[in-house]
Amino acid sequence: MIQLGIETLLRDQIALLKGKRVGLLTNMTGLDSRLCPTIDLLMAQPDIHLSALFGPEHGVRGDGQEGLPIESYTDPLTHLPVYSLYGNTRKPSKAMLKNIDCIVIDLQDIGVRYYTFISTMSLVMEACMEESKEVVVLDRPNPVNGLNREGNILDKSLSSFVGMHPLPNRHGLTIGELSLLYKHEFGINCSLTVVPMKRWSRTMYFRETGLCWVQPSPNATGEAMAVLYPGMCLIEGTTLSEGRGTTRPFEVIGAPYMNGSEIADKFNQLGLKGVLARPTSFVPYYSKYKGKLCRGIQIHITDISKVQSYKIGLYTLGLVAEMYPSEFSFLGNGNRCTFNLLAGNTKIRQKILENNFDDFFEQCQAECDQFSEHVLPYLLY
């Protein structure tokens, strides 16, 4: 089993926080390998004064759905103030940081640019830089390994909370490595310490870590979802259901107008590595097509090491656009529509509508290769 950053901190580096007033940015994934919450572990340390909690999207306790704002409150278990960073305030204010010397970050990222936890981390680092506060990041594994990178680099003009910095869709970094990249490449020059893991290697998928999967968000149901998410999340920006409101979000897709058998056949004819599709039907209990029968496909992983989710997502959208040109569309208008913000590029929509990706994936691979070279100084493992 790997050793997590929180465990390294408690065993070897607790002096980092000794005598300090600590704010903790965390959620239900902030646990050690025995599932003890980081909140409790820090509160039990006599030389650390845990002063406040900070919550990302979904909240400190993970009870908020995606996209729903969360208010600040007093935690009934610890009686600590909980400052929500997913509501009217997304960047800690001067008042929130007034009685804090250091913010500790312990969050399980999912390895994908759209995941808002890494945007929250960026804003926390920025606030701490401005207020001369320390940041300590407790590292955790990238659940979809630290080698593979997929997708296009975000166009800076499309920077948003679902893609703040020029990263590929699947970035191949741990949250600690990302924080180093933010500091040294994106001008967020805060006082930063990353507490590393031990025994984690870049080739590992989550199943190889020995850790229990704890959902970092309500729809992050497991390793299969995480592996498919880099490409399948793009479906959020279209009239297709990405499976929210089912037990298999980002693994099933569909709409009332689709024929699951036809699209499953066409999908499987593409010969995409590591996956097969089968026709399925589902009724979402919330989100798109709530309460309506949808037909579509479920994507099954046959070889996790060969899955290229970005290609899967775009080829799937291209097939649907070709088969259902009257029914399929993108949500919103203008350059900063939902799809473009997720895609980080304004030209991908047209490629989907034409179902033509000639040379595009080669261009993406070149961007990922360049990114891989660029981040070498920040790799910890």
From TrEMBL:
Matching Pfam families: NamZ_C, NamZ_N
Residue ranges occupied by any Peptidoglycan beta-N-acetylmuramidase NamZ C-terminal domain in the UniProt entry: 227-381
MF annotations from Gene Ontology: peptidoglycan beta-N-acetylmuramidase activity
Domain Peptidoglycan beta-N-acetylmuramidase NamZ N-terminal: 22-220
Residues of the signal peptide: none
PANTHER family assigned: HYPOTHETICAL 460 KDA PROTEIN IN FEUA-SIGW INTERGENIC REGION [PRECURSOR] (PTHR42915), PEPTIDOGLYCAN BETA-N-ACETYLMURAMIDASE NAMZ (PTHR42915:SF1)
Protein name from the UniProt record: DUF1343 domain-containing protein
Species this protein is from: Sporolactobacillus laevolacticus DSM 442
